[in-house]
Amino acid sequence: MAQPLLRAQVDIDAPPAKVWALVSDLRLMPQWSPQCRLMKQFGPLRPGTRTVNLNRRNFLFWPTTSRITEVVSERKLAFRVNENNTVWSFELEPTATGTRLTETRHAENGVKPVSNVMVNVALGGVPSFEGELVDGMNESLSRIKAAAER
């Protein structure tokens, strides 16, 4: 069974506008995420915009689609992955020295059963895959931090 919330956070010595420019440009997602190889949006960045994504783990590749659910400039970007019903988000909070960036994966209503079966069969089981996702979130945030602080 999927955890309802996966979360990672980092403090970045850069203003929210600079961090927002990095996380809101979905073409850059493969530079941040160790799992994402492509995120292509169809239309402007706003609720309802669809994306096609390609993910990779070792030699296994799989496509997903998503829909942007929330866009609040310099504050929050969220999208729902259609195949498993999870919502991924980036939230930005101004701090005294820059920006606190939090990445989450919400699965309040669980993950679609077919997704759990695929994770169990092809990706080593839900608990270990979710551990990899959190590691990947931390890696993504550290890459965004490095780029924003350059």
Provide structural commentary.
The protein has helices at 16-23, 29-32, 113-122, 126-149, and strands spanning 5-12, 36-42, 50-57, 60-72, 76-81, 87-95, 98-106. By secondary structure, it is of the alpha+beta class. It has a single domain, classed as START domain (Alpha-D-Glucose-1,6-Bisphosphate, Chain A, domain 4), CATH 3.30.530. Strand 3 and strand 4 form a beta hairpin. The mean pLDDT is 95.
Task: Calculate Rg over CA atoms.
Answer: 15 Å
- How many strand units? 7
Largest sheet: 7 strands, antiparallel
Task: List the domain count as a whole number.
Answer: 1
CATH architecture: 2-Layer Sandwich
How many alpha or pi helices?
4
Name the helix and strand elements from N-terminus to C-terminus, one letter apiece.
EHHEEEEEEHH
CATH superfamily: START domain
| The CATH class | Alpha Beta
The portion of residues forming beta strands comes to: 35-45%
CATH topology: Alpha-D-Glucose-1,6-Bisphosphate, Chain A, domain 4
Summarize the structure.
It is built from four helices and seven strands, in the order βααββββββαα. With 150 residues, the protein is an alpha+beta fold.
Can you give keywords for this protein?
single chain, 150 residues, alpha+beta, Alpha-D-Glucose-1,6-Bisphosphate, Chain A, domain 4, 7-stranded antiparallel sheet, 4 helices, 7 strands, globular
Ordered list of secondary-structure elements with their pairings:
Blueprint: E1 5-12, H1 16-23, H2 29-32, E2 36-42, E3 50-57, E4 60-72, E5 76-81, E6 87-95, E7 98-106, H3 113-122, H4 126-149
Antiparallel strand pairs: 1-7, 2-3, 3-4, 4-5, 5-6, 6-7
